[in-house]
Each structure stands twice: as structure tokens, then as C-alpha cells.
Amino acid sequence: MSDIIKRGKLHTDDWTIVRQAEGEDIASLELPAGRVIVPLPLWLARRDSLLAKAEAGVVGVWLAGDEDPATLADDLLRLQLIAIDFPKFADGRGYSIATLLRTRYGYADELRAIGDVLRDQFFYLSRCGFDALQPKEGKYTRVQLEAALASLNDFSEPYQAAVDRAEPLFRRRPREAA
Amino acid sequence: MYQYDEYDQRIVDERVAQFRDQTSRYLSGELSEDEFRPLRLQNGLYIQRYAPMLRVAVPYGNLRSDQLRMLGHIARKYDRGYAHVSTRQNIQYNWPKLEDVPEILGLLSSVQMHAIQTSGNCIRNVTADPFAGVAGDEHIDPRPWCEIVRQWSTFHPEFAFLPRKFKIAVNGAEHDRAIIRAHDIGLDLIRDAGGNIGFRVLVGGGLGRTPIIGEEVSSFVPWQQILNYCEAVLRVYNLHGRRDNAYKARIKILVKALGVEEFARQVEAEFVHLKDGPSTLTQAEIERVASRFDDPELPPEPAHSEAHAAHLASNKAFATWVGRNVRAHKTEGYASVVLSLKTHGVAPGDITAEQFDTAADLADRYAFGEARSTHEQNLVLASVRQADLYEVWQQARAAGLASPNIGLLTDIIACPGGDFCALANAKSIPIATAIQARFDDLDYLHDIGEIEVNISGCMNACGHHHVGHIGVLGVDKNGSEWYQVTIGGDQGNQAALGKVIGPSFAAAEMPDVISSLINTYTDNRHPDERFIDTVRRIGIEPFKTRVYAEREQRKEAHV
Lengths: 178, 559
Ligand code: SF4
Prior knowledge:
The structure holds two protein chains of two kinds.
Chain A: E1 2-6, E2 9-13, E3 16-17, E4 36-39, H1 40-45, H2 47-55, E5 59-63, E6 81-86, H3 93-104, E7 110-115, H4 122-127, E8 132-133, H5 142-148, H6 169-172
Parallel strand pairs in A: 3-4, 4-5, 5-6, 6-7, 7-8
Antiparallel strand pairs in A: 1-2, 1-8
Chain B: H1 6-27, H2 33-41, E1 45-47, E2 52-56, E3 62-64, H3 65-78, E4 82-85, E5 91-93, H4 101-109, E6 127-128, H5 143-153, E7 168-171, E8 185-191, E9 197-203, E10 215-222, H6 226-240, H7 251-258, H8 260-274, H9 283-291, H10 306-314, H11 316-325, E11 326-328, E12 334-339, E13 350-352, H12 353-366, E14 370-373, E15 379-385, H13 389-398, E16 413-414, H14 429-438, H15 442-448, E17 453-456, E18 470-477, E19 480-487, E20 499-500, E21 505-506, H16 510-524, H17 531-538, H18 541-558
Parallel strand pairs in B: 6-7, 7-8, 16-17, 17-18
Antiparallel strand pairs in B: 1-2, 2-5, 3-14, 4-5, 4-13, 8-9, 9-10, 11-12, 12-15, 14-15, 18-19, 19-20, 19-21
């Protein structure tokens, strides 16, 4: 069980993130019991046996920064959870992958940020379409995470269009000429 | 210049609150050093050799008199009484305390200023021609477009953690004074055959360790689509730029690796999805932004002021200053004035709190309350009545802002270098001041004529040494400071990278090296030929030969 932020609220979560250890064979890797988020290569290798579980909402897939979201294009209606991994918080590829999943491929279910996920990036992450934010185990106490919810609203009227507000400020609000 | 509306103001106010909270979490130990670093960098805050350095954004170099006064106040109260104009038109403080920074940002926001994205791996301050809106050779005013790019790039959620920093410049004049070819994206405002406004888009220019001149990826993007197009460029870069090696992470390396055709193809493939989307600009938005610039109505003036002509005839010092520091204005009877921040014995681009105040007074009295900062590290009063030039000169001179050296050898562009910057291989300021001391004879300086000398303390090239007619780069040789010299670089329409003339020099040799280069030029020049033109005509060989021959002679003379 870990504490995460989901749709702007604190939430206790029971998904397990499966990471492939070095040298481990994805074909034979035993999946833990309960709900699991598996790496894309594992999903691709064992897709046939996992599809039903994905549809039942007990298997999700996570993407690394160098993986193309187009690979999942055919599965987007079946998957109820896709995660994107941030190996380091300053590695910003995940922001573009999320944007593409939401806007180009129309993925509508849970999109979760995992890995080095920090509160000072919550605002940007949620703007790019992440509706679930999962900091590393033990990174924040529940109290700290509660306080971090405020970061989601750091800026009340951002200038540009993104996933959360599909229109830029100049289309959303009347702005006055001088 | 652009006046904030309530939304602009709210965003900078919210930024101050956010950074105040981040700083206090850092000081209490809740945020680690590594976690805080990118946050403070995206607010222009470096930890330097002696203290933090705070870089304040001056969007495309535009300043108002109240902002100049505030910059002076901050210099006095939180620094050591001066600040520094950077080669990207920003203002830097070298001695603020970290604890004071939220306070300083609060003061800046009270005059519609900030330090947002002046550093870090994000879209940086957009730069432009300091003579925008008043230059005679301008076909389209770049400022409203700069402001539109500024707003779009401010806290862009998808592009806050790029592989590396990202710089955009806009040019709308015949002569490119914004060095758009040396930017990650260079936007050239043009009209198509039907007279429609659009942008020629250059990508992948940049100085630094691997200097590259930007290449054209689109010959014409209609203005309505420019943000969509920039988004496509940024997305391709964000997803595919290298992140394994900071020296190979700029977009120029990606463009080189893919080849410009393939890069352009990928951008196009992305752009087709974005084209005509919600970020497409509207005529109403352009007009709204342009209207907020609130440009002064210039009262009609006679084309020639008799009083001005009389001063020119009777005062040689004034005439010299007008010849060098005053530029033609598109409106009859007006001129643009460059206030020189290149005075003997002072680091290039340094400005004291008192000089900020004087510049503000001059702006209020004679220039409709506005000023500009330039990438050559000077200030500009864009619109001054010809009839007022004499008074402006007198007051600027009293404040040490009227060295008549704009475009001359002593108008040196130099980064802060080893005196302040933690990344430096070598100092740059003492080299600049030694060269200024060597060439302090004004008549000789004018005889040498136009020449650009650029000095950087390391490969990062903040002093733009590659595009200097003479470029000086600090290098580290076994722990001591040496200087490599290039000649033949140029910025603007004929942008070119300088060539290295040979082995590097010790600091003490530098004034002699410059003398040898200048003497080669004066011996070989044709009438009316600038240094750079002579280098282009005769090549670097004669310069090189003389520099090293005279170096040998000096060595022998010492034995
Ligand atoms: S060129 Fe190098 S030494 Fe100079 S300011 Fe930039 S990083 Fe510092």
C-alpha cells in the first residue's frame, strides 16, 4: 500500500510496479499477486495472456522515456492504467509522452507518473495529463503529501494550452487591450 | 513597452509565492540540494564562486524607468552597489544572499519584472534587436511577437525539463541585430509574395563548445501557426535530444546527427497534428498584445535642429560621441542613443546603482520613460529628440555613460569570467580592461574603426567569442590561465565563426597580441575597409605570422 495523489486527492493505492532486474527473463518472470504495472517489453511479450487482466483492471503498463507511446495505440481502449517512468525528475521526456497519449492517441483512463516524482513538478505533470502521481516509496510522509496538494494549484491561469486546459489563456479569458 | 494585464501580474506574483515556499523548504532541509538546483536555476539563481548570482529577465531587452530605478535599488540594498548587463540582455547580480532572493523577486514583481527561466534546461528569455520599433531598416516590429513567445514559453509544462537550455531570438529588420543564427530557434519575420507575414525558421544555431550556425527548417511559417510550429520543434527535441551527455544535449547536436532534412521532416510530421489547433494565433490576440506596448506618439520635430548643428560644429567631443553613439531613427528629428557601459577600468557591462538612476532620469526626461539593454552589454534610449542630444550627452557624460566607443575596439563584450563564474577556465574582465588601457587614445581608436572583440572565460561562450571579429577564449593549461585567439568571426547577416590563429597566450601577452593584429590590419587595409573586411580579403595568415613573429621578438628582447 502506498500513498499517492489521484485526481487531486490523497489516495491509498494497491498497485505494484514490476521492474525487470538485470538479466531477468521477462518471459518467465513471475508476477506478484494483486494489481501490477508491468514494463512495456513484458507487456508486448506476454500480451495475449495479459489482455483479459488489463481489461479487468488488474494489469497496467508502464513506459520508459525512450519508448514510443504509439506502440500501445491498439491497446488504449483496453488498458485502464498506463504509467510513465521518470528515472530522474529532470528527465522531461515523460511530459511529451503523456501529452501525446492524451491528445494524439486519445487515451482517457488513468495516467500515472512513477519514479522520481516530486511535488515541485506536480503542477507541470498534471497539466500534461497525469491524473495520478506516485512519488517513490517513503519519499513523503502522508502529512507532507497532503501539504503537497497545494502545489497542484501553483498557478491559477497559465498562459498556454496543455492537456488540462485545451485552450490558451487568450481564448479562455477576455484579455483587455490597452 | 509591454504593460502587464492582471493575468501577467498574477503569474509573476504566484511565482514569487512558489519560490518563497521552495526556498524555505530548502533552507529547512526538506528539499535536497539536487532537488532545489533546477528550481532555483529556473529562477535565474546560480551558486557561484563567492555567492549566489541572480539573473533577472529583461524580456527582449525592454526596460521602463521605474524598472531601472528598482534595479538600482536592488543593487544598493542587496548587492554591492552595482549589477551587470549580460550578453543575453539580462541583468545579473553577483552578491545577493539566498535568503534575500524571495524578497528581491517580490520587489521585481512590483514593477512587472521577474527572473523566470533565465537559467536551467528550459526555454530562456527571448531576445531581439535593441532598436526594435525605431530602426530605419526594420520591416516588421518583432516586439509583439517576442511577447507572444514569452507568454507561450513561460511555465510551458511540457518543456520545463528539456535536455538542455533553449534560446529563441526574433529579427524583423534588414540587418539581423539579434544574432538569430546563433540561437536554438531563430525566427526571421518576413512577408511572402502576397504580403502576408510569417517566419523563416532557423534551428540549431548556438555557440558554446560546438559552435554551429543555425539552418533553415522552414522557409515560411504563417504567423498564425508559429506557436504550433515551435511546439513541434520543441517536442521533437524534448523526445529525441541527447540526455546522456550535457555537452551533446543542445538541439544543434540533434539537428547535426539527423541531418537538417530529416529533422525538418520529423518536425513537419509533428506539425501536421498541431496545425490549426487551439494555440493558433488570432488577429485579435496580436492586436491586443501590440496595443499593450503603448508606444509613445512622437511629437513632430524638424528634420534638422539648428541648435544641434551648432553644438556639433563647436564641440568636438560631442561630435565624436554623436558619430559613434547616436544612431538614425526612423522618425525625422529623432535619434537613438547608446549609453556605453564600457568605461576604462570597469568590467564590460557593469552598471552602478547611480548609473541606473541616471539612465532612468534620462529615460524619463528625454526618451518617453523607456530604455533597452543590448547583447553588446550597453543601454539604449530608443527615441530621443535630436534637439535634446546635447543635454543627454552632458548628463550621460557626468555619470560615466558616454564613452564615445560604441562599435570600437574598447566596446568589448566579455562574460563575467573567472572573477565571478564557477565554470570559468580563466578571467575575462582583466583581459578586457588591459586591452582598454592599451587603446585609450581616442583618435587612434577611431582610426582603427569598427571592430568587435569578444571574450569568454570558458567554452560555454557567454562572451560569444566565436562571432567576435577578434575572439578571446580562456583555456586551462595545467592549472594556469591561457587565452586562445580567433579572428574572422562575425554576427548578423554574414554570421561566421572565427578561426583559431595558433597556440594560446598568457594574460600579460594579450594587449601585445591585439596590437599585432591591429597593426597587421592598419598596414594592409584599403581605404574604408573595416578590420573584418581586411581579414576576409587577405585571410588569417598575415595576421598569424605577425602575431607569432612579434611574440618571438619580445621573448628574445627579454633574454
Ligand atoms: S563563458 Fe564560461 S566563464 Fe564566462 S560566464 Fe559563461 S560559463 Fe562563466
